[in-house]
Design a protein that fits this description.
single chain; alpha/beta; 2 domains; 5-stranded parallel sheet; two-stranded antiparallel sheet
Length: 326
Protein backbone atom coordinates (compact mmCIF):
# COMPACT_ATOMS: atom_id res chain seq x y z
CA UNK A 1 0.00 0.00 0.00
CA UNK A 2 1.53 3.33 -1.06
CA UNK A 3 0.70 6.73 0.37
CA UNK A 4 -2.97 7.65 0.43
CA UNK A 5 -4.25 9.32 -2.74
CA UNK A 6 -4.91 12.54 -0.87
CA UNK A 7 -1.15 12.84 -0.22
CA UNK A 8 -0.35 12.87 -3.96
CA UNK A 9 -3.21 15.30 -4.65
CA UNK A 10 -2.05 17.75 -1.99
CA UNK A 11 1.58 17.52 -3.11
CA UNK A 12 0.57 18.18 -6.72
CA UNK A 13 -1.58 21.14 -5.63
CA UNK A 14 1.40 22.63 -3.78
CA UNK A 15 3.54 22.28 -6.92
CA UNK A 16 0.88 23.91 -9.06
CA UNK A 17 0.62 26.82 -6.60
CA UNK A 18 4.40 27.23 -6.55
CA UNK A 19 4.51 27.37 -10.34
CA UNK A 20 1.58 29.77 -10.56
CA UNK A 21 3.12 32.05 -7.90
CA UNK A 22 6.46 32.06 -9.74
CA UNK A 23 4.82 32.96 -13.05
CA UNK A 24 2.59 35.64 -11.50
CA UNK A 25 5.57 37.15 -9.72
CA UNK A 26 7.54 37.26 -12.96
CA UNK A 27 4.64 38.95 -14.76
CA UNK A 28 4.41 41.58 -12.02
CA UNK A 29 8.14 42.28 -12.27
CA UNK A 30 7.87 42.40 -16.06
CA UNK A 31 5.11 45.02 -15.90
CA UNK A 32 7.20 47.14 -13.52
CA UNK A 33 10.21 46.93 -15.85
CA UNK A 34 8.23 47.98 -18.93
CA UNK A 35 7.00 51.09 -17.13
CA UNK A 36 10.57 52.14 -16.44
CA UNK A 37 12.24 50.69 -19.57
CA UNK A 38 9.73 50.59 -22.46
CA UNK A 39 12.62 49.75 -24.83
CA UNK A 40 12.67 46.25 -23.27
CA UNK A 41 9.43 45.49 -25.13
CA UNK A 42 11.14 46.06 -28.50
CA UNK A 43 14.05 43.79 -27.54
CA UNK A 44 11.67 41.05 -26.44
CA UNK A 45 9.70 41.28 -29.70
CA UNK A 46 12.95 40.69 -31.56
CA UNK A 47 13.74 37.70 -29.34
CA UNK A 48 10.28 36.31 -29.98
CA UNK A 49 10.64 36.75 -33.74
CA UNK A 50 13.93 34.83 -33.70
CA UNK A 51 12.17 31.95 -32.01
CA UNK A 52 9.43 31.94 -34.63
CA UNK A 53 12.02 31.98 -37.40
CA UNK A 54 13.73 28.92 -35.91
CA UNK A 55 10.48 26.98 -36.19
CA UNK A 56 10.11 27.97 -39.83
CA UNK A 57 13.77 27.13 -40.55
CA UNK A 58 13.20 23.44 -39.81
CA UNK A 59 11.52 23.12 -43.22
CA UNK A 60 14.58 24.50 -45.02
CA UNK A 61 16.33 21.12 -45.08
CA UNK A 62 20.10 21.19 -45.57
CA UNK A 63 20.34 24.98 -45.24
CA UNK A 64 18.54 25.01 -41.89
CA UNK A 65 21.55 24.41 -39.66
CA UNK A 66 23.51 27.43 -40.82
CA UNK A 67 20.43 29.68 -40.69
CA UNK A 68 19.49 28.49 -37.19
CA UNK A 69 23.05 29.18 -36.02
CA UNK A 70 22.74 32.78 -37.23
CA UNK A 71 19.35 33.17 -35.52
CA UNK A 72 20.82 31.75 -32.31
CA UNK A 73 23.63 34.29 -32.44
CA UNK A 74 21.14 37.12 -32.89
CA UNK A 75 19.03 35.82 -30.04
CA UNK A 76 22.01 35.66 -27.68
CA UNK A 77 22.91 39.25 -28.56
CA UNK A 78 19.33 40.35 -27.86
CA UNK A 79 19.36 38.57 -24.49
CA UNK A 80 22.66 40.25 -23.62
CA UNK A 81 21.23 43.64 -24.61
CA UNK A 82 18.17 43.04 -22.41
CA UNK A 83 20.38 42.20 -19.41
CA UNK A 84 22.52 45.30 -19.98
CA UNK A 85 19.41 47.49 -20.31
CA UNK A 86 18.03 46.10 -17.06
CA UNK A 87 21.27 46.79 -15.19
CA UNK A 88 21.41 50.36 -16.49
CA UNK A 89 17.88 50.88 -15.18
CA UNK A 90 18.92 49.59 -11.74
CA UNK A 91 17.45 46.08 -12.00
CA UNK A 92 19.40 42.82 -11.50
CA UNK A 93 20.27 41.30 -14.88
CA UNK A 94 18.16 38.20 -14.04
CA UNK A 95 15.20 40.25 -12.82
CA UNK A 96 12.88 39.00 -15.58
CA UNK A 97 13.71 35.33 -15.10
CA UNK A 98 11.00 33.10 -13.59
CA UNK A 99 12.12 32.24 -10.04
CA UNK A 100 10.88 28.67 -9.66
CA UNK A 101 11.16 26.95 -6.29
CA UNK A 102 12.83 24.09 -8.16
CA UNK A 103 14.72 25.28 -11.25
CA UNK A 104 15.31 21.67 -12.33
CA UNK A 105 11.68 20.72 -13.01
CA UNK A 106 10.32 24.29 -13.01
CA UNK A 107 7.82 23.27 -10.36
CA UNK A 108 6.16 20.65 -12.57
CA UNK A 109 7.29 17.69 -10.45
CA UNK A 110 8.94 15.80 -13.33
CA UNK A 111 12.21 16.05 -15.24
CA UNK A 112 13.42 13.98 -18.21
CA UNK A 113 10.47 11.61 -17.81
CA UNK A 114 11.07 10.95 -14.08
CA UNK A 115 9.66 12.36 -10.86
CA UNK A 116 11.83 15.23 -9.67
CA UNK A 117 13.53 14.93 -6.28
CA UNK A 118 11.61 18.01 -5.13
CA UNK A 119 8.31 16.20 -5.78
CA UNK A 120 9.46 13.06 -3.95
CA UNK A 121 10.52 15.18 -0.99
CA UNK A 122 7.21 17.07 -1.04
CA UNK A 123 5.23 13.80 -1.05
CA UNK A 124 7.10 12.56 2.05
CA UNK A 125 6.59 15.91 3.78
CA UNK A 126 2.87 15.90 2.94
CA UNK A 127 2.50 12.31 4.16
CA UNK A 128 3.93 13.34 7.54
CA UNK A 129 1.70 16.40 7.71
CA UNK A 130 -1.32 14.15 7.12
CA UNK A 131 -0.66 12.62 10.54
CA UNK A 132 -1.29 16.06 12.10
CA UNK A 133 1.80 15.64 14.27
CA UNK A 134 4.43 17.08 11.92
CA UNK A 135 6.15 19.19 14.67
CA UNK A 136 6.35 16.12 16.92
CA UNK A 137 7.74 14.00 14.09
CA UNK A 138 10.41 16.61 13.44
CA UNK A 139 11.56 16.41 17.07
CA UNK A 140 11.29 12.63 17.32
CA UNK A 141 14.09 11.29 15.15
CA UNK A 142 16.79 8.73 15.85
CA UNK A 143 19.38 11.49 15.58
CA UNK A 144 17.67 13.43 18.40
CA UNK A 145 17.32 10.45 20.77
CA UNK A 146 19.84 11.19 23.56
CA UNK A 147 21.21 8.11 25.34
CA UNK A 148 23.08 10.31 27.83
CA UNK A 149 19.91 10.51 29.94
CA UNK A 150 20.09 6.79 30.73
CA UNK A 151 22.46 6.12 33.65
CA UNK A 152 25.27 3.60 33.54
CA UNK A 153 23.93 1.74 36.57
CA UNK A 154 22.76 -1.85 36.71
CA UNK A 155 19.01 -2.35 36.45
CA UNK A 156 17.84 -4.75 39.16
CA UNK A 157 15.33 -6.48 36.92
CA UNK A 158 17.23 -6.56 33.62
CA UNK A 159 20.61 -7.36 35.15
CA UNK A 160 22.50 -4.95 32.87
CA UNK A 161 23.17 -1.21 32.98
CA UNK A 162 20.25 0.96 31.93
CA UNK A 163 22.41 2.77 29.35
CA UNK A 164 23.56 -0.54 27.85
CA UNK A 165 20.01 -1.86 27.67
CA UNK A 166 18.56 1.32 26.19
CA UNK A 167 21.39 1.42 23.64
CA UNK A 168 20.30 -2.05 22.52
CA UNK A 169 16.67 -0.88 22.39
CA UNK A 170 17.68 2.14 20.31
CA UNK A 171 19.70 0.02 17.85
CA UNK A 172 16.89 -2.51 17.56
CA UNK A 173 14.33 0.21 16.71
CA UNK A 174 16.69 1.83 14.21
CA UNK A 175 17.29 -1.51 12.42
CA UNK A 176 13.55 -2.24 12.54
CA UNK A 177 12.83 1.04 10.74
CA UNK A 178 15.65 0.49 8.25
CA UNK A 179 14.43 -3.00 7.31
CA UNK A 180 10.69 -2.28 7.59
CA UNK A 181 8.22 -3.94 5.25
CA UNK A 182 4.52 -4.76 5.41
CA UNK A 183 5.47 -8.19 6.75
CA UNK A 184 7.53 -6.80 9.65
CA UNK A 185 6.67 -7.96 13.15
CA UNK A 186 4.61 -5.86 15.52
CA UNK A 187 6.15 -4.28 18.62
CA UNK A 188 4.98 -3.57 22.14
CA UNK A 189 7.02 -0.85 23.87
CA UNK A 190 6.71 -1.31 27.63
CA UNK A 191 7.81 1.06 30.38
CA UNK A 192 6.89 3.92 32.64
CA UNK A 193 6.16 7.48 31.49
CA UNK A 194 8.95 9.52 29.91
CA UNK A 195 11.37 6.74 28.94
CA UNK A 196 11.33 7.42 25.19
CA UNK A 197 8.63 5.05 23.93
CA UNK A 198 6.77 7.69 21.93
CA UNK A 199 10.01 9.22 20.66
CA UNK A 200 11.31 5.93 19.23
CA UNK A 201 7.94 4.90 17.79
CA UNK A 202 7.77 8.22 15.93
CA UNK A 203 11.41 7.91 14.90
CA UNK A 204 10.41 4.62 13.28
CA UNK A 205 7.45 6.39 11.63
CA UNK A 206 9.78 9.05 10.17
CA UNK A 207 11.95 6.45 8.45
CA UNK A 208 9.04 4.26 7.34
CA UNK A 209 7.23 7.21 5.75
CA UNK A 210 10.42 8.21 3.94
CA UNK A 211 10.59 4.67 2.56
CA UNK A 212 7.20 5.21 0.91
CA UNK A 213 4.89 3.42 3.36
CA UNK A 214 1.58 4.63 4.71
CA UNK A 215 1.65 5.19 8.48
CA UNK A 216 -1.17 6.02 10.87
CA UNK A 217 -0.37 7.29 14.36
CA UNK A 218 -2.70 8.21 17.20
CA UNK A 219 -3.23 7.66 20.90
CA UNK A 220 -5.50 4.80 21.88
CA UNK A 221 -7.72 7.23 23.77
CA UNK A 222 -8.24 9.42 20.69
CA UNK A 223 -8.93 6.39 18.51
CA UNK A 224 -11.53 5.07 20.94
CA UNK A 225 -13.23 8.49 21.14
CA UNK A 226 -13.44 8.69 17.34
CA UNK A 227 -14.73 5.13 16.98
CA UNK A 228 -17.31 5.70 19.70
CA UNK A 229 -18.64 8.81 17.94
CA UNK A 230 -18.76 6.98 14.62
CA UNK A 231 -20.39 3.89 16.11
CA UNK A 232 -23.08 5.75 18.05
CA UNK A 233 -23.76 8.34 15.35
CA UNK A 234 -22.29 11.30 17.23
CA UNK A 235 -19.82 12.23 14.50
CA UNK A 236 -20.96 14.56 11.69
CA UNK A 237 -18.09 13.73 9.36
CA UNK A 238 -18.41 11.19 6.57
CA UNK A 239 -14.76 10.18 6.92
CA UNK A 240 -13.96 7.05 8.90
CA UNK A 241 -10.63 6.04 10.41
CA UNK A 242 -11.27 2.33 9.84
CA UNK A 243 -9.20 2.34 6.64
CA UNK A 244 -6.29 3.87 8.58
CA UNK A 245 -6.63 1.39 11.42
CA UNK A 246 -7.10 -1.74 9.33
CA UNK A 247 -5.16 -1.06 6.12
CA UNK A 248 -2.24 1.29 6.85
CA UNK A 249 1.16 -0.29 6.28
CA UNK A 250 2.12 0.55 9.85
CA UNK A 251 -0.25 1.41 12.70
CA UNK A 252 1.22 3.12 15.78
CA UNK A 253 -1.05 3.27 18.82
CA UNK A 254 0.34 5.32 21.68
CA UNK A 255 -0.44 5.00 25.39
CA UNK A 256 -2.45 1.79 25.50
CA UNK A 257 -4.26 1.68 28.84
CA UNK A 258 -4.92 5.41 29.14
CA UNK A 259 -8.37 5.04 27.57
CA UNK A 260 -11.52 4.70 29.67
CA UNK A 261 -12.13 0.95 29.69
CA UNK A 262 -15.56 -0.31 28.62
CA UNK A 263 -16.86 -3.37 26.83
CA UNK A 264 -16.94 -1.25 23.67
CA UNK A 265 -13.30 -0.14 23.90
CA UNK A 266 -12.06 -3.64 24.74
CA UNK A 267 -13.96 -5.13 21.79
CA UNK A 268 -12.66 -2.40 19.45
CA UNK A 269 -9.05 -2.90 20.56
CA UNK A 270 -9.40 -6.64 19.99
CA UNK A 271 -10.94 -6.03 16.57
CA UNK A 272 -8.13 -3.69 15.50
CA UNK A 273 -5.34 -6.07 16.49
CA UNK A 274 -7.10 -9.19 15.30
CA UNK A 275 -7.87 -7.68 11.87
CA UNK A 276 -4.28 -6.51 11.39
CA UNK A 277 -2.90 -9.89 12.49
CA UNK A 278 -5.17 -11.64 10.00
CA UNK A 279 -3.98 -9.23 7.29
CA UNK A 280 -0.32 -9.70 8.38
CA UNK A 281 0.13 -5.97 8.99
CA UNK A 282 2.46 -4.67 11.74
CA UNK A 283 1.32 -2.63 14.71
CA UNK A 284 3.45 -0.75 17.24
CA UNK A 285 1.96 -0.19 20.68
CA UNK A 286 3.39 1.85 23.52
CA UNK A 287 2.04 1.42 27.02
CA UNK A 288 2.81 2.30 30.63
CA UNK A 289 1.17 -0.96 31.70
CA UNK A 290 3.08 -4.06 32.72
CA UNK A 291 2.25 -7.41 31.13
CA UNK A 292 0.23 -8.36 34.22
CA UNK A 293 -1.70 -5.08 34.05
CA UNK A 294 -2.46 -5.64 30.35
CA UNK A 295 -3.82 -9.07 31.22
CA UNK A 296 -5.95 -7.61 34.03
CA UNK A 297 -7.28 -4.61 32.10
CA UNK A 298 -8.25 -6.50 28.95
CA UNK A 299 -9.76 -9.91 28.40
CA UNK A 300 -7.34 -12.82 28.18
CA UNK A 301 -8.27 -13.17 24.51
CA UNK A 302 -7.34 -9.52 23.78
CA UNK A 303 -4.14 -9.61 25.82
CA UNK A 304 -3.13 -12.83 24.10
CA UNK A 305 -3.59 -11.31 20.63
CA UNK A 306 -1.58 -8.23 21.60
CA UNK A 307 1.29 -9.89 23.43
CA UNK A 308 1.38 -13.18 21.56
CA UNK A 309 1.87 -11.64 18.11
CA UNK A 310 4.46 -8.94 18.83
CA UNK A 311 8.00 -8.50 20.05
CA UNK A 312 8.09 -7.06 23.57
CA UNK A 313 10.61 -4.27 24.24
CA UNK A 314 11.14 -3.16 27.83
CA UNK A 315 12.21 0.44 28.44
CA UNK A 316 14.04 1.43 31.61
CA UNK A 317 15.56 4.48 33.32
CA UNK A 318 14.17 7.66 34.82
CA UNK A 319 11.65 10.07 33.30
CA UNK A 320 13.75 11.79 30.62
CA UNK A 321 11.32 14.71 30.37
CA UNK A 322 11.82 15.47 34.07
CA UNK A 323 15.59 15.08 33.74
CA UNK A 324 15.63 17.59 30.86
CA UNK A 325 13.66 20.10 32.93
CA UNK A 326 16.10 19.80 35.81
Amino acid sequence: MAYKQIVYIKAKNILQKRRADALNSQQARHSAVLLKCPEIAKIEREMSSYGAEVVKAVAMGADAQEYIAKLSEKSLKAQKLRRETLKKAGFPDDYLEVKYTCPICRDTGSHDGYYCDCYRKLIKQTAKEQLNIAPLLEKSTFEKFDLRYYPDITDGVLGVSQKEHMTEVFEFCREYAKDFSRSSEGLVLLGKTGLGKTHLSLAIANVVIDKGYNVYYNTVQNVMNILEKEHFGKSKTDESIEEDLFESDLLILDDLGSEFSTQFTISQIYNIFNTRIINSLPTIISTNLSLNEIDEKYTQRTASRIVGNTTLIQFCGKDVRQLKKS
